[in-house]
Give the backbone structure.
Amino acid sequence: MPWVQLHLTSDRDTAPVLEDRLLACGALSVTLADSEDEPILEPGVGETPLWQSVRITGLFEADIDRRTVTSAIADIAGTRAADPVWETLADRPWERTWMDDFAPIRCGDRLWICPSWQSPPDPGAVNLVLDPGLAFGSGTHATTFLCLQWLDGQDLAGKTVIDYGCGSGILGIGALLLGADRVIAVDNDPQALLATRDNLHRNGLDTDRLTAWLPDQMPTATVDILVANILAGPLIELSALLEGRLKAGGRLCLSGITGEQTEAVVGAYPGIHFDSPVCRDEWTRLTGVKTGT
């Protein structure tokens, strides 16, 4: 079935009103996006921030009465919204079109991330076969790449690893392929745990080498390595928990942090001796060793 999209640009205050009106007119979905390259890297707790200028896209079935929709938003938009533009979309499997842009990625000296629908470019490398599904983590994002690159440079033989905020399972499964003995994967999204188990099976790994848990079910054992690719706020809030899960001498890898957040995150982990930060794009990776006995 073909679809149509309505595009318009609004100021920040008007955008939520327009969103509600489009949904009331029968929009199947409404997407709000930045129209002027204004970054919002991490919202505060309880905030739903918007840009000063917002690009609004409403998706409708093709037989929608366009004039009725346009008329319904005219009294709201006024002079504050650009003229609406309608676009017809051909029928395509939209939920999978992103696959066309997901190519194999080299992360370090040994590790490649390879889409499950493509052949690995280097069959002799350590190839992680991945289908992220609905979960975060394909290796294309700078934070994921930074963590994979770090794991590629570690001696993981015989080690137990916690992948906290596992998403697609990419970091934990990568650790197993690079020599880790066992991985404890943790995420608050059940879809992520499902994606992690699916990708474990896709890579031909024994199911007893990785267990996937919701946070309140995570085993209490201490481990050799802990990787957490989430955001600065949760990393700070969870610092005592994450640091407490590391053995003395264990290594910690944190990402999802911007440059200006680095100092606050480091300060939340008093028992970790941190290395120099490593950056990619606007994102930072922090690694270090747990001190003490």
About this structure: Helices lie at 15-24, 66-77, 142-152, 170-177, 190-202, 232-237, 239-244, 262-267.
